[in-house]
Amino acid sequence: MLIFCPHCGMRPSEEFTPKGLAEAPRPALGGDDRPEDDAWQDYLHTRTNKAGQTNEYFHHSLGCRRWIVVHRNTLTHEVTGSTMASEFWQNQQQAQDWEAGQ
Amino acid sequence: MSPVLKNPLGAKWTAGRHGKAEGGPGVLASHTAGLTIVEVAALPGQAQAMRAALKAAFGMDLGAGSPAEGAENAVCTGPGQYLLTGHDVATVKAAVGDLALAVDQSSGRVRLTISGPAIAALLAKTCPLDLATWPVGAAHASHFLHIACTYFRRGDAEFDLYVGRSFAQSVGKWLLDASAEFGLEIA
C-alpha cells in the first residue's frame, strides 16, 4: 500500500506507524485545568468504527517523523489524501465539509 | 569495558577492493570521519525565517522547504528540519537565534558517500523509493534495511547516506555483502 505524506510525497506503508481514528479534537481544558470527564472518555475511547471514508492518524516514523492524518476508505482501502496532523484540526471546517461530501 | 569503535562501519570496512575483483569497481564508497553534523529544527511557524537566516549566514539556498530544494551541506529531513554539515553547533546556534533549535549530531550520525555504475542496482536491493525519479540535489528521509536513513542525491550516480552511528556497523556489513557482486572499492 502507498500512503501520501504531505511533506515527503508518495511513500510505502512500511514507513508509517498507524495510531487510530482522528475522530475528535483533543478536548479543551475546563475547571481544575482538566477536560470534562465525558469529553475525555469520548476522546480516548469512543470510536464509530465506520465502514467507508475515515481519517486516521499515522506517524511517518521512517521518514519525516511527522504525525499526519490519512484519508482512507476502509471498504476499498483507497487512500485519497493526507493532511499534516498539526493542520488538521485547525482546519476543522474543511474536515467537516470533507466528511459531509462523502 | 568494550574497546572504543574507531571505525563506525565495523572491522571489515577497510580501504581497498572487496568482492568481485575483475574489471572496474561497480560501487565506490567513502566515509567522512570527523564530519561536523548539526541538526536544526524550526520552531512552529518559523521555518521560512530560519531558511532566510541560514541563507544570510551560510549562503545556502533552501527554497520553500521542499526536500528537493536542499544543498549538499543542508539536507532536508522533515518540514523545517535540516542536517547541516561543515559548521559547528555554536555557529549554527548563533545563525538561527530563537527561530530554531540546533543539536550537535556529529557523534550521532555517520555520512557515507556511495557512487559508481552499479549504484542503482545496489540501492534497489533495499531502498523502497524510485531513485530514477529523484532530481539531483533531492533529499529523502526514508529507510535502509529498516534503519532510518536520509538519502541525498549528489549526482546521477552518487548518493550520501546519513544513518545513526550505532546502526552504521550493520549498514557497513550489508554494503560489503550486497556490493560484492559488483566489486566494491572503499576509499
Q: Give helix and strand order of chain B, one letter per element, not per position.
A: EEEHEEHEEHEEEHE
- How would you describe the shape of chain A? globular
Strand content of chain B: 25-35%
Largest beta sheet: strand ordering of chain B: 1-11-2-7-10-9-8
| Extended strand count of chain A | 6
Q: So, CATH architecture of chain A?
A: 2-Layer Sandwich
| Count of domain modules of chain A | 1
Q: Can you give the helix content of chain A as a percent range?
A: 10-25%
- For the termini of chain B, the CA-CA separation is 30 Å
Stated plainly, the CATH topology of the largest domain in chain B is called: Gyrase A, domain 2
CATH-assigned homologous superfamily of chain A: Folate-binding superfamily
> What are the segments of chain A in which pLDDT stays under 50 over at least 5 consecutive residues?
none
Structural class of chain A: alpha+beta
- Top CATH class of chain A: Alpha Beta
Which CATH class of the largest domain in chain B applies here? Alpha Beta
In N-to-C order, the SSE pattern of chain A is EEEHEEEHH
Mean pLDDT of chain B: 92
Which outline of chain B best applies?
elongated
Offer a quick outline of the entry.
The complex is a heterodimer of chains A (102) and B (187). Chain A is an alpha+beta fold and 102 residues long. In chain A, 23% of the residues lie in helices and 32% in strands.
